[in-house]
Amino acid sequence: MSAVDLSLQEIEDAAKLVHEQVPPTPQHRWPLVEEALGTETWLKHENHTALGAFKIRGSIVYMHRLVERERPTGLVTATRGNHGQGIGMAARLHGLPLTIVVPHGNSREKNEAMRAQGATLVEHGDDFQEAFEHATALAAEHGWHQVANFHPDLLAGVASYPLELFRAVPDLDVVYVPIGLGSGICATMAVRDALGLTTRVVGVVSAGAPAYARSWEAGEPVSVPATTLLADGMAVRTPMPDALERIRAGADHLVEVDDEEVAAAMALIFTATHNVAEGSGAAALAGALKEKDTLAGQRVGLVVTGGNVDREVFTRVLA
């Protein structure tokens, strides 16, 4: 299977939908980041969207296409936060009631942001997988549409950010992308291939949630407990089979980073750029720093996937 399943026309059509609500985000070079990595480096600032993360892009396209096909009586989805905020905004735009399931102990500020979008929040389970299974049960019980967490319509919308990045900087040698459930890295590979580029795409996995790394090695989905306390957007216990297949087909390799490395990258992004990155948002930089000895003389892209970190957590990181 090829990593490509979106044509350039499909990606551009989805990007037009996205850009009606979300302006393109910038990609910048920051001298202190380049000093730390020792090579030319571009940060793609998805922390600059209206919701502070890239997920809104996929939500806009998913919801637009859903209401073209049907108008469900209600929606339900599971999340650790950024997906839920994106679906919340998109559901509100279409006047659809939404229930979001999060695990116990989820980010307090992400929970507040989802409620502010008008969603009903339900806390269930100890991790994302248990929240996801409860969302599936609620959908069956109430006849609601369960919003997917990995789906071609989400990929099409998410692909608008790598399209912006590759159009702005077409000769990147390598791009590092964090892996949660996989929409970001799969969309990046799809755009690369649709544009006919040779850029290597490296997936970054939390060492405290290594399910995709273990599954990459095994050649099939493997469930592994998620223990990361900082990279909540990457805290996945069970990979999506479709995502894993695409990642194994199109990614160069995966790199694992632990919470200490993620914290150091969050602090560096703030010091070097005065941008706030959540744990998963700083993971790409953490991965590149871990492999900096292999990057000399290359043009590197790093996706800052989001900046939605609780104040108390970020204060501890900076301290």
Helix content: 40-55%
pLDDT averaged over residues = 95
Strand order of the largest sheet: 1-2-10-7-8-9
What structural category do the secondary elements indicate? Answer: alpha/beta
State the total count of DSSP E strands. 10
Encode the helix/strand succession as letters: HEHEHEHEHEHEHHEHEHHEHHEH
* SS strand fraction: 5-15%
Principal-axis shape equals globular
Spatial gap, N to C terminus: 46 Å
Give me the Rg, rounded: 18 Å
- Which ranges are low-confidence, i.e. pLDDT below 50, for 5 or more consecutive residues? none
Count of DSSP-assigned helices: 14
* Main beta-sheet strand count, sense and barrel state: 6 strands, mixed
Question: Could you characterize the architecture of this molecule?
Answer:
This protein is an alpha/beta fold. It contains 14 helices and ten strands. The strands form two sheets. A six-stranded mixed beta sheet has the order 1-2-10-7-8-9, sandwiched between helices. Strands 5-4-3-6 form a four-stranded parallel beta sheet, sandwiched between helices. Strand 4, helix 5 and strand 5 form a beta-alpha-beta unit. Helix 1 crosses helix 3 and helix 8 packs across helix 9. The chain starts with 7 loop residues before the first helix and ends with a helix.
